[in-house]
UniProtKB/TrEMBL annotation:
Its EC number is 2.7.7.65. It holds the Pfam family GGDEF. One of its GO terms (cellular component) is plasma membrane. InterPro entries: Diguanylate_Cyclase (IPR050469), GGDEF_dom (IPR000160), Nucleotide_cyclase (IPR029787), Rev_trsase/Diguanyl_cyclase (IPR043128). Residues 174-307 form the GGDEF domain. PANTHER family: DIGUANYLATE CYCLASE DGCM-RELATED, REGULATORY COMPONENTS OF SENSORY TRANSDUCTION SYSTEM. NCBIfam families: GGDEF. This is diguanylate cyclase. One of its GO terms (biological process) is negative regulation of bacterial-type flagellum-dependent cell motility. GO terms for molecular function: diguanylate cyclase activity. It catalyses: 2 GTP = 3',3'-c-di-GMP + 2 diphosphate.
Amino acid sequence: MTDVSLFSNEQIAALLAALPDPAFILTRSGKYAALFGGTDARYYHDGSALVGKSIPDVLNGEKAAWFIAQIAIALAKTGLHVIEYQLNRKDVKGLDADGPEDTIWFEGRVQALEYRVQGEDAVLWVASNITASKKLEALLRMQSETDALTGLANRRKLMQALTDNYELFARYQTPASVLIFDIDKFKNINDTYGHLSGDKAIQATADVCRRELRTTDFPARLGGDEFVILMPHTGWEQAKPIAERLRQKVPAALRTLGTLGDGATISGGLSELLPGDSSFEDVLKRADDALYRAKRDGRNRIVHLEA
Ligand SMILES: Nc1nc2c(ncn2[C@@H]2O[C@H](COP(=O)(O)OP(=O)(O)OP(=O)(O)O)[C@@H](O)[C@H]2O)c(=O)[nH]1
Protein backbone atom coordinates (compact mmCIF):
# COMPACT_ATOMS: atom_id res chain seq x y z
CA MET A 1 0.00 0.00 0.00
CA THR A 2 1.26 3.49 -0.84
CA ASP A 3 2.23 5.63 2.14
CA VAL A 4 -0.41 8.35 1.77
CA SER A 5 1.45 10.61 4.14
CA LEU A 6 3.80 11.29 1.21
CA PHE A 7 0.95 13.34 -0.29
CA SER A 8 -0.77 16.40 1.00
CA ASN A 9 -4.59 16.41 1.23
CA GLU A 10 -4.67 18.75 -1.77
CA GLN A 11 -2.52 16.33 -3.75
CA ILE A 12 -4.76 13.38 -2.84
CA ALA A 13 -7.84 15.38 -3.82
CA ALA A 14 -6.16 16.22 -7.15
CA LEU A 15 -5.29 12.56 -7.69
CA LEU A 16 -8.87 11.45 -7.07
CA ALA A 17 -10.18 14.19 -9.35
CA ALA A 18 -7.82 13.00 -12.11
CA LEU A 19 -9.18 9.40 -12.20
CA PRO A 20 -10.30 8.67 -15.78
CA ASP A 21 -13.35 6.57 -14.75
CA PRO A 22 -16.00 8.10 -12.50
CA ALA A 23 -15.97 6.78 -8.93
CA PHE A 24 -19.19 7.45 -7.03
CA ILE A 25 -19.74 7.23 -3.31
CA LEU A 26 -23.31 5.97 -2.98
CA THR A 27 -25.14 5.43 0.29
CA ARG A 28 -27.38 2.46 1.06
CA SER A 29 -30.51 4.54 0.40
CA GLY A 30 -29.12 5.55 -3.01
CA LYS A 31 -27.75 9.01 -2.34
CA TYR A 32 -24.87 10.27 -4.51
CA ALA A 33 -22.65 11.46 -1.65
CA ALA A 34 -19.57 12.23 -3.75
CA LEU A 35 -18.02 11.81 -7.18
CA PHE A 36 -14.32 11.53 -7.96
CA GLY A 37 -12.76 11.50 -11.40
CA GLY A 38 -14.55 10.72 -14.64
CA THR A 39 -12.15 12.94 -16.56
CA ASP A 40 -12.07 10.81 -19.70
CA ALA A 41 -14.38 13.00 -21.77
CA ARG A 42 -14.39 10.44 -24.59
CA TYR A 43 -16.65 8.27 -22.45
CA TYR A 44 -18.24 10.32 -19.69
CA HIS A 45 -20.35 13.42 -19.29
CA ASP A 46 -19.63 15.60 -16.30
CA GLY A 47 -21.46 13.82 -13.46
CA SER A 48 -20.88 16.45 -10.80
CA ALA A 49 -24.55 17.54 -10.95
CA LEU A 50 -25.49 14.14 -9.51
CA VAL A 51 -23.89 14.83 -6.14
CA GLY A 52 -26.56 15.57 -3.55
CA LYS A 53 -29.23 13.79 -5.57
CA SER A 54 -30.65 10.32 -5.07
CA ILE A 55 -30.75 7.49 -7.61
CA PRO A 56 -34.58 7.75 -7.99
CA ASP A 57 -34.15 11.48 -8.80
CA VAL A 58 -31.99 10.55 -11.76
CA LEU A 59 -33.12 7.14 -13.00
CA ASN A 60 -36.54 5.78 -13.82
CA GLY A 61 -38.40 3.23 -11.64
CA GLU A 62 -37.11 -0.21 -12.51
CA LYS A 63 -33.54 0.91 -13.21
CA ALA A 64 -33.40 2.92 -9.96
CA ALA A 65 -34.63 -0.10 -7.99
CA TRP A 66 -31.99 -2.27 -9.66
CA PHE A 67 -29.18 0.19 -8.74
CA ILE A 68 -30.29 0.31 -5.11
CA ALA A 69 -30.48 -3.50 -5.02
CA GLN A 70 -26.88 -3.69 -6.31
CA ILE A 71 -25.73 -1.38 -3.50
CA ALA A 72 -27.38 -3.71 -0.96
CA ILE A 73 -25.68 -6.74 -2.54
CA ALA A 74 -22.27 -5.04 -2.46
CA LEU A 75 -22.80 -4.05 1.19
CA ALA A 76 -23.58 -7.67 2.10
CA LYS A 77 -20.32 -8.87 0.46
CA THR A 78 -16.76 -8.63 1.64
CA GLY A 79 -15.25 -8.52 -1.85
CA LEU A 80 -15.87 -6.57 -5.02
CA HIS A 81 -19.31 -6.74 -6.63
CA VAL A 82 -18.89 -6.63 -10.42
CA ILE A 83 -21.89 -5.97 -12.66
CA GLU A 84 -22.64 -5.05 -16.25
CA TYR A 85 -25.55 -2.78 -17.10
CA GLN A 86 -26.82 -0.53 -19.81
CA LEU A 87 -28.29 2.93 -19.64
CA ASN A 88 -30.34 4.47 -22.39
CA ARG A 89 -32.56 7.48 -22.79
CA LYS A 90 -35.61 5.88 -21.29
CA ASP A 91 -33.69 5.00 -18.11
CA VAL A 92 -32.53 8.53 -17.42
CA LYS A 93 -35.04 11.05 -16.10
CA GLY A 94 -35.47 14.34 -17.91
CA LEU A 95 -34.46 12.97 -21.32
CA ASP A 96 -36.91 12.53 -24.16
CA ALA A 97 -37.60 8.78 -24.20
CA ASP A 98 -38.47 8.97 -27.91
CA GLY A 99 -35.11 10.46 -28.83
CA PRO A 100 -32.43 8.46 -30.64
CA GLU A 101 -31.64 5.17 -28.93
CA ASP A 102 -28.19 5.61 -27.58
CA THR A 103 -27.46 2.72 -25.26
CA ILE A 104 -24.29 2.93 -23.20
CA TRP A 105 -22.92 -0.17 -21.52
CA PHE A 106 -21.08 0.04 -18.23
CA GLU A 107 -19.14 -2.28 -16.03
CA GLY A 108 -19.73 -1.34 -12.43
CA ARG A 109 -17.20 -2.35 -9.78
CA VAL A 110 -18.85 -1.81 -6.45
CA GLN A 111 -17.04 -2.09 -3.11
CA ALA A 112 -18.54 -1.67 0.37
CA LEU A 113 -16.76 1.00 2.42
CA GLU A 114 -15.65 0.26 5.95
CA TYR A 115 -17.03 3.52 7.29
CA ARG A 116 -20.35 5.30 7.11
CA VAL A 117 -20.98 8.32 4.93
CA GLN A 118 -23.64 10.91 5.81
CA GLY A 119 -24.84 8.56 8.55
CA GLU A 120 -25.34 5.58 6.24
CA ASP A 121 -23.51 2.50 5.00
CA ALA A 122 -21.94 3.35 1.66
CA VAL A 123 -20.16 1.91 -1.35
CA LEU A 124 -17.56 3.04 -3.85
CA TRP A 125 -19.06 2.49 -7.34
CA VAL A 126 -16.60 2.79 -10.23
CA ALA A 127 -18.39 2.89 -13.59
CA SER A 128 -16.41 2.04 -16.74
CA ASN A 129 -17.84 2.59 -20.19
CA ILE A 130 -17.57 -0.75 -22.02
CA THR A 131 -19.85 0.12 -24.96
CA ALA A 132 -17.14 -0.38 -27.60
CA SER A 133 -16.21 -3.86 -26.41
CA LYS A 134 -19.90 -4.81 -26.05
CA LYS A 135 -20.55 -3.73 -29.64
CA LEU A 136 -17.53 -5.68 -30.84
CA GLU A 137 -18.65 -8.71 -28.84
CA ALA A 138 -22.13 -8.52 -30.44
CA LEU A 139 -20.60 -8.17 -33.92
CA LEU A 140 -18.29 -11.16 -33.40
CA ARG A 141 -21.16 -13.24 -32.03
CA MET A 142 -23.31 -12.32 -35.02
CA GLN A 143 -20.48 -13.17 -37.43
CA SER A 144 -19.79 -16.49 -35.72
CA GLU A 145 -23.45 -17.45 -36.16
CA THR A 146 -24.01 -16.18 -39.70
CA ASP A 147 -23.24 -17.73 -43.05
CA ALA A 148 -21.18 -15.13 -44.90
CA LEU A 149 -22.48 -15.92 -48.39
CA THR A 150 -26.21 -15.79 -47.64
CA GLY A 151 -26.64 -14.02 -44.30
CA LEU A 152 -28.67 -16.99 -43.05
CA ALA A 153 -27.83 -18.76 -39.81
CA ASN A 154 -24.82 -21.04 -40.15
CA ARG A 155 -24.37 -24.60 -38.96
CA ARG A 156 -23.25 -23.55 -35.47
CA LYS A 157 -26.35 -21.40 -34.90
CA LEU A 158 -28.59 -24.09 -36.36
CA MET A 159 -27.20 -26.70 -33.96
CA GLN A 160 -28.00 -24.38 -31.05
CA ALA A 161 -31.56 -23.82 -32.29
CA LEU A 162 -32.02 -27.57 -32.82
CA THR A 163 -30.78 -28.26 -29.30
CA ASP A 164 -33.24 -25.69 -27.87
CA ASN A 165 -36.12 -27.20 -29.82
CA TYR A 166 -35.18 -30.73 -28.83
CA GLU A 167 -35.23 -29.67 -25.18
CA LEU A 168 -38.68 -28.09 -25.57
CA PHE A 169 -39.90 -31.27 -27.22
CA ALA A 170 -38.39 -33.53 -24.54
CA ARG A 171 -39.91 -31.44 -21.73
CA TYR A 172 -43.25 -30.23 -23.15
CA GLN A 173 -43.72 -32.35 -26.30
CA THR A 174 -43.61 -29.13 -28.35
CA PRO A 175 -43.45 -30.36 -31.95
CA ALA A 176 -40.81 -29.24 -34.44
CA SER A 177 -40.07 -30.28 -38.00
CA VAL A 178 -36.84 -30.24 -39.98
CA LEU A 179 -36.49 -29.95 -43.74
CA ILE A 180 -33.14 -30.50 -45.46
CA PHE A 181 -33.05 -29.57 -49.12
CA ASP A 182 -30.58 -28.89 -51.87
CA ILE A 183 -30.56 -27.85 -55.50
CA ASP A 184 -30.60 -30.84 -57.81
CA LYS A 185 -27.45 -31.32 -59.89
CA PHE A 186 -25.98 -28.16 -58.45
CA LYS A 187 -22.54 -29.32 -59.51
CA ASN A 188 -23.66 -28.89 -63.14
CA ILE A 189 -24.49 -25.23 -62.48
CA ASN A 190 -21.02 -24.67 -61.06
CA ASP A 191 -19.33 -26.61 -63.83
CA THR A 192 -21.29 -24.96 -66.65
CA TYR A 193 -21.68 -21.39 -65.46
CA GLY A 194 -18.84 -21.02 -62.94
CA HIS A 195 -18.57 -20.89 -59.21
CA LEU A 196 -19.75 -17.27 -58.97
CA SER A 197 -22.98 -18.13 -60.74
CA GLY A 198 -23.31 -21.06 -58.35
CA ASP A 199 -22.94 -18.60 -55.48
CA LYS A 200 -25.70 -16.42 -56.97
CA ALA A 201 -27.98 -19.46 -57.11
CA ILE A 202 -27.24 -20.18 -53.44
CA GLN A 203 -27.98 -16.54 -52.52
CA ALA A 204 -31.23 -16.55 -54.50
CA THR A 205 -32.27 -19.72 -52.67
CA ALA A 206 -31.58 -18.05 -49.33
CA ASP A 207 -33.68 -15.04 -50.42
CA VAL A 208 -36.61 -17.34 -51.13
CA CYS A 209 -36.26 -18.83 -47.64
CA ARG A 210 -36.32 -15.37 -46.09
CA ARG A 211 -39.30 -14.31 -48.17
CA GLU A 212 -41.46 -17.39 -48.03
CA LEU A 213 -41.05 -18.63 -44.48
CA ARG A 214 -42.80 -17.47 -41.35
CA THR A 215 -40.72 -15.35 -39.00
CA THR A 216 -40.75 -18.18 -36.47
CA ASP A 217 -39.18 -20.59 -38.96
CA PHE A 218 -35.45 -20.88 -38.88
CA PRO A 219 -33.61 -21.23 -42.20
CA ALA A 220 -29.91 -22.08 -42.15
CA ARG A 221 -27.25 -22.92 -44.67
CA LEU A 222 -25.47 -26.10 -43.74
CA GLY A 223 -22.78 -25.73 -46.42
CA GLY A 224 -22.53 -26.01 -50.20
CA ASP A 225 -26.04 -25.93 -51.68
CA GLU A 226 -27.55 -27.62 -48.64
CA PHE A 227 -30.14 -25.78 -46.54
CA VAL A 228 -31.98 -26.74 -43.38
CA ILE A 229 -35.31 -25.25 -42.32
CA LEU A 230 -36.19 -25.78 -38.69
CA MET A 231 -39.90 -25.21 -38.14
CA PRO A 232 -40.67 -24.83 -34.43
CA HIS A 233 -44.19 -25.62 -33.16
CA THR A 234 -44.88 -27.41 -36.43
CA GLY A 235 -45.77 -31.05 -37.00
CA TRP A 236 -44.82 -32.61 -40.32
CA GLU A 237 -48.38 -32.28 -41.73
CA GLN A 238 -48.12 -28.48 -41.46
CA ALA A 239 -44.48 -28.53 -42.56
CA LYS A 240 -45.15 -30.46 -45.76
CA PRO A 241 -47.01 -27.64 -47.61
CA ILE A 242 -44.26 -25.21 -46.58
CA ALA A 243 -41.65 -27.56 -48.03
CA GLU A 244 -43.73 -27.94 -51.18
CA ARG A 245 -43.95 -24.17 -51.50
CA LEU A 246 -40.14 -23.96 -51.44
CA ARG A 247 -40.01 -26.69 -54.07
CA GLN A 248 -42.02 -24.37 -56.34
CA LYS A 249 -40.52 -21.03 -55.37
CA VAL A 250 -36.78 -21.84 -55.34
CA PRO A 251 -36.72 -23.04 -58.98
CA ALA A 252 -38.87 -20.02 -59.96
CA ALA A 253 -36.28 -17.71 -58.35
CA LEU A 254 -33.40 -19.57 -60.04
CA ARG A 255 -35.08 -19.15 -63.42
CA THR A 256 -34.89 -15.38 -62.97
CA LEU A 257 -31.08 -15.72 -62.97
CA GLY A 258 -30.99 -16.78 -66.62
CA THR A 259 -30.26 -20.05 -68.36
CA LEU A 260 -28.60 -21.55 -65.29
CA GLY A 261 -32.09 -21.82 -63.82
CA ASP A 262 -33.55 -23.66 -66.79
CA GLY A 263 -35.01 -26.90 -65.50
CA ALA A 264 -33.74 -26.22 -61.95
CA THR A 265 -35.37 -28.28 -59.21
CA ILE A 266 -34.80 -28.99 -55.54
CA SER A 267 -35.12 -32.13 -53.47
CA GLY A 268 -35.95 -32.20 -49.78
CA GLY A 269 -36.15 -34.57 -46.85
CA LEU A 270 -38.63 -33.83 -44.08
CA SER A 271 -39.05 -35.24 -40.61
CA GLU A 272 -40.26 -34.19 -37.19
CA LEU A 273 -39.09 -34.82 -33.65
CA LEU A 274 -40.38 -38.16 -32.42
CA PRO A 275 -40.87 -39.51 -28.87
CA GLY A 276 -38.00 -42.01 -29.16
CA ASP A 277 -35.45 -39.37 -30.22
CA SER A 278 -32.49 -39.07 -27.88
CA SER A 279 -31.18 -35.82 -29.40
CA PHE A 280 -31.81 -33.47 -32.33
CA GLU A 281 -29.29 -35.57 -34.29
CA ASP A 282 -32.02 -38.20 -34.72
CA VAL A 283 -34.41 -35.91 -36.56
CA LEU A 284 -31.56 -34.45 -38.62
CA LYS A 285 -30.48 -37.94 -39.61
CA ARG A 286 -34.06 -38.90 -40.62
CA ALA A 287 -34.41 -35.74 -42.71
CA ASP A 288 -31.05 -36.50 -44.35
CA ASP A 289 -32.11 -40.09 -45.09
CA ALA A 290 -35.35 -38.71 -46.57
CA LEU A 291 -33.33 -36.36 -48.79
CA TYR A 292 -31.25 -39.30 -49.95
CA ARG A 293 -34.46 -41.13 -50.88
CA ALA A 294 -35.78 -38.08 -52.73
CA LYS A 295 -32.59 -38.09 -54.82
CA ARG A 296 -32.78 -41.83 -55.36
CA ASP A 297 -36.45 -41.67 -56.39
CA GLY A 298 -35.76 -39.17 -59.17
CA ARG A 299 -35.25 -35.73 -57.48
CA ASN A 300 -37.65 -32.72 -57.61
CA ARG A 301 -39.63 -34.03 -54.65
CA ILE A 302 -40.05 -33.78 -50.89
CA VAL A 303 -39.89 -37.09 -49.03
CA HIS A 304 -41.15 -37.43 -45.48
CA LEU A 305 -39.71 -40.06 -43.15
CA GLU A 306 -41.53 -41.01 -39.95
CA ALA A 307 -39.03 -43.43 -38.49
N1 LIG B 1 -20.84 -22.06 -55.97
C1 LIG B 1 -20.60 -22.76 -54.86
N2 LIG B 1 -20.52 -24.11 -54.93
C2 LIG B 1 -20.30 -24.80 -53.82
C3 LIG B 1 -20.15 -24.18 -52.56
N3 LIG B 1 -19.96 -25.13 -51.63
C4 LIG B 1 -20.00 -26.32 -52.28
N4 LIG B 1 -20.19 -26.14 -53.60
C5 LIG B 1 -20.31 -27.14 -54.68
O1 LIG B 1 -21.65 -27.64 -54.64
C6 LIG B 1 -21.68 -28.88 -55.31
C7 LIG B 1 -22.58 -29.80 -54.52
O2 LIG B 1 -22.86 -30.87 -55.29
P1 LIG B 1 -23.51 -32.15 -54.66
O3 LIG B 1 -24.45 -31.76 -53.59
O4 LIG B 1 -22.44 -33.11 -54.31
O5 LIG B 1 -24.30 -32.79 -55.81
P2 LIG B 1 -25.30 -32.15 -56.86
O6 LIG B 1 -24.58 -31.84 -58.10
O7 LIG B 1 -26.09 -31.02 -56.24
O8 LIG B 1 -26.24 -33.37 -57.10
P3 LIG B 1 -27.45 -33.88 -56.24
O9 LIG B 1 -27.42 -33.18 -54.91
O10 LIG B 1 -27.23 -35.34 -56.11
O11 LIG B 1 -28.64 -33.55 -57.02
C8 LIG B 1 -20.24 -29.35 -55.43
O12 LIG B 1 -19.82 -29.21 -56.76
C9 LIG B 1 -19.45 -28.35 -54.54
O13 LIG B 1 -18.17 -28.09 -55.03
C10 LIG B 1 -20.22 -22.74 -52.52
O14 LIG B 1 -20.10 -22.09 -51.47
N5 LIG B 1 -20.46 -22.08 -53.69
